[in-house]
Amino acid sequence: MSSKFGKLPLSTSGPIECALTGSALLNDPYFNKGSAFTPEERTEFKLHGLLPPNVQTLDDQVKRAYQQYRSRSDDLAKNTFMTSMKEQNAVLYYRLIHDHLKEMFSIIYTPTEGDAIANYSRLFRRPEGCFLNVEDQDRIADDLNQFGSPDEIDLIVVSDGEQILGIGDQGVGGILISVAKLVIYTLCAGIHPARTLPVVLDCGTNNEELLKDDLYLGLRRPRARGKEYDEFVDKFIRAAREKYPNAYIHFEDFGLHNARRILDKYQPQFACFNDDVQGTGCVTLAAVMAALKVADVKYEDLRIVLFGSGTAGTGIADQIKDAIAINTSRSKEDAGKQVWCIDKPGLLLKSKQKDLTPAQLSYARDDAEWADKPHGDLLSVIKAVKPHVLIGTSTQPGAFTEAVVREMAAHVARPIIFPLSNPTKLHEATPADLFAWTAGRCLVATGSPFAPVTHDGRQFEVAECNNSTTFPGIGLGAVLCRASRLSPGLLVAATNALAQQAPALDPAAKGSPRERALLPDVTAVRDISVRIAHAVIRAAQAEGLATQRGIPGDDAELDAWIQEQMWEPVYRPLRRVGREEASRFARGEAGSASTKRGADYTEGAA
After folding, report:
1. What is the superkingdom listed in this entry's lineage (predicted)?
2. Does 317 lie in the same domain as 180?
3. Which residues are catalytic?
4. CATH number for the domain that contains residue 390
């Protein structure tokens, strides 16, 4: 950390002021150190008699917690154990994940978090986050007021629970996707966990199993639609903006018919982001950028076919279109003509506009272009377009058949093929098949982790298009520069920064570029987030969207400025202050897991 920037409001250096003592201190997840409180802290904060006498280190605690974690019988039990730990000791929780990131990522996030969300009402122990419901809209402002003063919340993640992690409508259980997304922000980009707010907009549910479940905790009614729904979302946005004017708002897992139109409505007004639309698009574009350099394909020549044009597919198309426009000085309309989209109605054509979503309409082709060309299936489109890039978000397993792949490979030197559908069983093709069918010439990225592929005696790394390498850094940059909006230019800058970290483009790496991954691994994500945040901040300054004063002009100093404000899972010294002079945080009243709202700790880890 840089002492030069140690006086910043979000600085992570030096001692933390704390007005709590005794059991109240041990019950606060942000201050609690468990067995790691020093002798001096035990005396100063009246902890003698409340803890075993042996003082241990954070490393000791991680070792014990990992043993407890490993003793859990299945993945959902491990997820529940980690939730309990988070409610007790935030530093230990994040440090444990940090030290075992590869192993635990799938436990705290997808796919296991999906199981936890589906079982939310049955696993419920204590609430975390803000619960707003469509039948109590007049209380929205008062409900939001409980979570801090205007300058205490930097980031809000909100979901309406309609399209959760591929498992669909989960109603009020959607709060857990907001919670999980914020964990990723803290873990990967150092957003302070006490300065975040998870929100669920309970609009009812169309999930019959939940409606019939006696234990279901959400509204027992069909989902709100139309005017009632739109007014609810708008009242939340206006209340959140009034209460927390500096907060960056992240929309998560909204339904297909709402996600894009909500983003389009509010994106011109303030800094907001939808990971399903923009995050997937950014990480995929970064892999495309790296692949184009390896394959030596120019943007002006690029031809792309997208198989699956829902929220993710059109989000990818948007990011690619913006990148083509920026890199070629073409209009967005002309850039969009280099992208062909296929969905349930087949190739998107203007004559089918009644079957298309607003996001799909801009990619609909003139029917005259295809009057004499077959276009009823993927293979026919591949034959006509001869794409450099084929991307799948269709959730149709095996859709990239040998015939499709061989046809593509017959027309381009380096077929760039990304089967992105999740989970693994829904992938459009396996990397091993793609290498076999292209004689090892393909460049591949997938939506789930795959082991390296050995083909013809050479080993090829397979990049994973993991949004967690992208959205945390974008959010960090937007938060630190207090971006007034998140323009397409900021997203392209973020994507360029991610692409530059690709092992395939590292001149010092071993092996040929084709043998290396098109994206960096998630284990390097904090360094990646610094690079992305740097790029976002500089782009925001160039576009006049950065409102924070005092941003360093020197690039090396900017990196130090960013790093100084990234929360880390380490125990900082505590400095006792009186309640009269203490901030809300020092009194244990800040954050969605503050002691002010009570505690119910059920498992011991520290």
Report:
1. Eukaryota
2. no
3. 109, 181
4. 3.40.50.720
CB 219 within 8 A of CB 134: yes
Using alpha carbons, select from 188, 222, 228 the residue that is nearest to residue 205: 222
Let me know whether 281 and 223 are in one domain.
no
Single residue among 254, 286, 319 that ends a domain in this structure: 254
- Per-residue pLDDT reduced to its tens digit, 433-469: 999 999 999 999 999 889 999 999 999 999 999 999 9
Strands 346-347 and 339-343: antiparallel
Element (H, E) at 125: none
- Residue 425, burial from CB neighbour count under 10 angstroms (0-12, 13-18, 19+): exposed
DSSP H or E stretch at residue 442 = none
Q: Same structural domain for residues 369 and 459?
A: yes
Which residues lie across from 272 on neighbouring strands?
249
Q: Final residue of a domain: which of 190, 222, 254?
A: 254
Domain assignment present for 476: no
Nearest CA among 218, 194, 202 for reference residue 124: 218
Tokens of 360: 């799909």
Tell me which residue range forms the domain holding 406: 277-465
Same domain membership, residue 305 and residue 431: yes
Number of domain units in the chain: 2
- Report pLDDT for 424: 80
| 3-class SS string, 513-579 | HHHCCCCCCHHHHHHHHHHHHHHHHHHHHHCCCECCCCCCCCHHHHHHHHHHCCCCCCCCCEEECCC
**31 closest CA partner among 594, 592, 597, 566:** 594
Q: Has residue 264 been placed in a domain?
A: no
| Between 581 and 1, the higher pLDDT residue | 581
Asked whether the beta carbons of 34 and 45 are under 8 A apart, the reply is: no
Q: Which helix (H) or strand (E) holds 286?
A: helix 280-295
Asked whether residue 369 falls in the same domain as residue 325, the answer is: yes
Handedness of CA 145, 146, 151, 153 (dihedral sign): negative
Place of tokens 């041990």: 26
> Which residue shows structure tokens 């959902």?
76
Both tokens assigned to 483: 């971006």
* Nearest CA-CA partner of 469 in 214, 241, 212, 280: 280
State which amino acid sits at residue 335. Answer: A
What the block records as the tokens of 321 is 């279109």
Same domain, 169 and 295: no
Would 138 be classed as within a structural domain? yes
Q: Torsions phi, psi of 443, nearest 5?
A: -120, 125
Render pLDDT for 496-525 as a digit per residue (tens, 0 to 9): 999 999 999 998 888 788 899 999 988 889
Same domain assignment for residues 447 and 384: yes
Q: Can the peptide bond before residue 111 be classed as cis, meaning omega within 30 degrees of 0?
A: yes
Judge whether 11 and 5 are in contact, CB under 8 Å: yes
Extended beta strands in 168-322, E state: 196-202, 248-251, 272-274, 304-307
Q: What CATH number should be reported for the domain holding residue 233?
A: 3.40.50.10380
User: Is residue 184, in this structure, part of any structural domain at all?
Assistant: yes
Amino acid 511: pLDDT: 79
Instruction: Indicate whether 326 and 191 sit together in one domain.
Output: no
